Write a sequence for this structure.
């Protein structure tokens, strides 16, 4: 490797595509079913992000302007959960990598800032996107405000109605937020005609945002998860964690838990560790923690599927519950996606990662335990990783190192906790 994995201020993102024992199956054009060509994506994304999407280069330099923004909150803290350890009576050592310190409250700005910057460099003036719980929408709104772009967000109806604070956050950053499905797009109108009472889904909101971006030259689309370039940007989390664990005298975690919606925080934390498993003989186990209500990895099929309801996105080889699957309106809105990132799916398929499904009840119970021992109220999404880690920790061997990806804080999600108090 030219750049070692593990740094407190990474200068490069790490691309696991370089080290997979088999290449990730390519995305296909939804019309021709032929492998996608870079030009097929040009109406939606800037060239540099398309290059990253298809790249198999091991390290990709983080632009200086992006590193300067990261430096406002990165490195994010790696914290020993000693009080949680005592509450559990575990023999293991638990650490968590806390992404809730970003201005938006989650890991999502790691890619939002990069995506907004590359778009701004190419002269794009407006970005469209979808959001579930609103963490991604708020993050892209923040990033667009930093680089002088406007931003239009379609938020899944169930979250739009139950989580107004994220919408206010987007508006504070100067963005516009619509409930999805909306009557502003053909995709939204089609769904509303079929099912006026729908709770919405990320697949529907993606169709709306893509439709609007595809219709204008100066508007691009940004996705908060799933795509390869998003996994890439998030690897700052794991690159820092490798260095921080070393500082704490730990060469490698025995097991890494991350929640998985589209897969980005999990990939960001775990890919550098999987890279070390593949190239340096390390042996960290990685567990993707998903909601039992949307069990993409544990119950989905591994096949080509589209990323949205209208079928306008490329086809990706991934674990999927089917693009028209509408998950129940669980509180962890960011985990309500029918598919899983192709890179995460590939890692699962190759046996480099496992999946576990967590019930909403167990997730919130773990969230409360975590809040009452460590003080941080985890985002409802993050509680899934906490729950799986807590269960594991109860049986851990002496000294075993457990690493949790705490992808965000839940201070704007407190109403979701109310039912579990
Ligand atoms: C705090 C938080 N964690 C996790 C997720 C799930 O997304 P991903 O699997 O891409 O990390 C979200 C999505 O909105 C989120 O807001």
């Amino acid at each position: 490797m030219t750049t070692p994995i593990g740094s407190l201020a990474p200068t490069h993102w790490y691309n696991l595509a370089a080290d997979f024992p088999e290449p990730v199956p390519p995305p296909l054009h939804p019309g021709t079913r032929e492998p996608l060509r870079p030009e097929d994506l040009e109406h939606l994304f800037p060239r540099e992000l398309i290059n990253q999407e298809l790249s198999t280069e091991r390290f990709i330099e983080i632009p200086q302007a992006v590193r300067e923004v990261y430096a406002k909150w990165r490195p994010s803290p790696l914290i020993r959960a000693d009080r949680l350890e005592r509450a559990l009576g575990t023999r293991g050592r638990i650490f968590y990598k806390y992404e809730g310190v970003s201005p938006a409250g989650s890991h999502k700005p790691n890619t939002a800032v990069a995506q907004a910057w590359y778009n701004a460099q190419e002269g794009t003036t407006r970005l469209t996107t979808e959001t579930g719980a609103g963490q991604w929408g708020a993050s892209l709104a923040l990033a667009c405000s930093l680089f002088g772009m406007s931003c239009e967000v379609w938020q899944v109806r169930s979250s739009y109605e139950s989580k107004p604070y994220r919408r206010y956050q987007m508006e504070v950053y100067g963005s516009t937020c619509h409930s999805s499905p909306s009557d502003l797009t053909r995709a939204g109108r089609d769904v509303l005609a079929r099912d006026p009472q729908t709770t919405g889904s990320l697949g529907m909101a993606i169709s709306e945002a893509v439709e609007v971006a595809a219709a204008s030259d100066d508007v691009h689309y940004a996705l908060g998860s799933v795509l390869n370039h998003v996994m890439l940007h998030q690897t700052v989390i794991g690159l820092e964690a490798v260095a921080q664990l070393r500082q704490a005298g730990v060469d490698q975690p025995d097991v890494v838990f991350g929640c998985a919606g589209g897969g980005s925080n999990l990939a960001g934390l775990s890919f550098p560790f999987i890279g070390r498993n593949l190239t340096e003989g390390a042996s960290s186990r990685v567990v993707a923690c998903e909601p039992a209500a949307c069990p993409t990895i544990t119950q989905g099929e591994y096949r080509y599927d589209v990323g949205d309801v209208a079928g306008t996105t490329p086809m990706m080889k991934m674990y999927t519950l089917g693009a028209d699957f509408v998950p129940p309106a669980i509180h962890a809105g960011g985990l309500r996606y029918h598919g899983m990132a192709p890179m995460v799916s590939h890692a699962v398929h190759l046996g480099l990662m496992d999946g576990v499904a967590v019930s909403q009840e167990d997730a919130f119970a773990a969230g409360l335990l975590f809040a009452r021992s460590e003080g941080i109220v985890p985002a409802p999404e993050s509680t899934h990783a906490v729950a799986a880690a807590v269960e594991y920790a109860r049986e851990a061997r002496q000294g075993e190192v457990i690493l949790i990806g705490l992808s965000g804080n839940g201070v704007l999600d407190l109403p979701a906790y109310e039912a579990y108090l």
Q: What stands out?
A: The first strand starts at residue 12 and ends at 14.
